[in-house]
Design a protein that fits this description.
A hairpin with a 2-residue loop joins β1 and β2. The N and C termini lie far apart (50 Å). The protein has a two-stranded antiparallel ribbon with strand order 1-2. Strands 3-4 form a two-stranded antiparallel sheet. It has two domains: 285 residues, Fido-like domain (Fic-like fold); 104 residues, Arc Repressor Mutant, subunit A, CATH 1.10.10. By secondary structure, it is an all-alpha fold. It is built from 18 helices and four strands.
């Protein structure tokens, strides 16, 4: 049983092992900062938040289907008690992600995230709004939002620190990672902090979700995501490797060439390398999807399908207006959008109504301004392979 803080050293690779990681972190910092400054419709960020919820819960083996999340957001929960509980957890994650992004802002917010209070705050924000019946572990132990565990636990082969030592390990975790300030080094530290927080296992349940929310929130606070990407997607796409490397970094030191700490430096390096590669992959993927040169053609393909195959009243003349709304990321008065259609007033009114009905336009009121919409059924045209499970879910319904 772990009781002394030196037992989860090293917290970061030695300086002479850092160079490859720092180079990768430099690439991530440069590309992510550029992507984060991209102007996009707000509906895209909402969709991505829903997607993050789907993927983080999928990692835990408790995911719902994309359309079930969509129903839950409209307070339409399943009659099946187990499924409804998963839906509530998905909605709770979406709300928590949004609240945490608004609470921890900028470099000061990122620094604050390396505190025991912030780690407990993340757990509390995630679980506090769930009904009592949902706050039970699979073993029927009570989950107290924000409360550190009061019992000893073993996760797979890893025997976590004694519960009485959790505050001690958390304090060391906060002090070390919160003290890493330089950009590239801070990104490497974040990757290591994710693993070592899991090693501490501060809560009776929800540790994985808290770890991923912490990483996501820190990246957002530092201006790296702009709400346009998250490592959660990449972790879920490589679920087996995520868990394997996470567990391997719990391993004890493997001989004289494996660092100077109690735990394996080689395994920690492999983990950090995986995290940085995953983040880089997500940034590059989203940057390609947001290529404005091809977006117009993707919108056109969507409109052609709606107009000629589904024949639901959507008109191809909406291309110019929708493309403008996507590029501007802003709302537009209904009259201005109808003018861009170049149709009679009655025809433009009907066409606009069809777009709203299909979710390609969004509005907060029947006569309010409109903005670019991003319904799940349009993903295969507008953002192919962004959320493949949502595309498959729709095809199977």
């Amino acid at each position: 049983m772990y009781n002394e803080i030196h037992q989860f050293e090293p917290l970061q690779p030695a300086d002479n092992r850092m160079e490859p990681l720092l180079a990768r972190a430099h690439d991530l910092s440069r590309l992510a900062t550029t992507l984060a400054g991209t102007r996009v419709p707000p509906e895209l960020r909402s969709l991505l938040r829903n997607m993050n919820s789907y993927y983080t819960n999928r990692i835990e083996g408790q995911h719902t289907r994309p359309h079930e999340i969509d129903l839950a957001l409209r307070k339409n929960f399943s009659n099946d008690a187990a499924l409804a509980a998963k839906q509530r957890l998905a909605v709770a994650h979406i709300a928590a992600e949004q609240a945490l992004e608004q609470r921890y802002i900028g470099s000061e917010g990122a620094k604050t995230l390396y505190s025991a209070d912030a780690v407990q705050d993340i757990h509390r924000e995630l679980f506090d709004h769930l009904p009592v019946d949902d706050l039970l572990t699979p073993e029927k132990e009570a989950i107290v939002p924000g409360a550190l565990r009061k019992q000893d636990v073993q996760v797979g082969q890893h025997v976590a620190p004694a519960h009485a030592s959790v505050p001690l390990f958390l304090a060391r975790w906060c002090d070390f990672y919160g003290g890493v300030r330089r950009g590239e080094a801070a990104l490497v530290a974040l990757a290591c902090a994710h693993q070592r927080l899991g090693w501490i296992h501060p809560f009776v349940d929800g540790n994985g979700r808290v770890m991923r929310l912490h990483t996501h929130t820190w990246l957002t606070a530092q201006g790296y995501t702009g709400g346009l990407w998250s490592p959660m997607h990449g972790f879920a796409r490589n679920n087996e490797r995520y868990y394997a490397l996470l567990a391997d970094a719990d391993s004890l030191r493997r001989g004289d060439l494996d660092g100077r700490g109690n735990l394996s430096e080689q395994a920690l390096i492999a983990w950090a390398d995986f995290v940085l590669d995953t983040c880089l992959d997500q940034v590059r993927f989203m940057a390609a999807l947001l290529d404005f040169e091809t977006m117009k053609a993707r919108i056109e393909a969507c409109l052609v399908f709606e107009a000629t195959v589904l024949k639901n009243g959507v008109r191809q003349e909406a291309l110019r207006g929708l493309h403008y709304l996507f590029l501007s990321g802003e709302d537009m008065a209904r009259g201005d959008f109808k003018t861009m259609l170049g149709m009679s007033d009655r025809g433009a009114t009907d066409a606009l109504g069809a777009l709203v009905k299909r979710g390609l336009l969004k509005s907060d009121s029947p006569q309010g301004k409109v903005r670019f919409g991003l319904p799940q059924h349009a993903l295969r045209f507008l953002f192919p392979q962004l959320w493949p499970e949502a595309e498959a879910d729709l095809a199977n319904r």
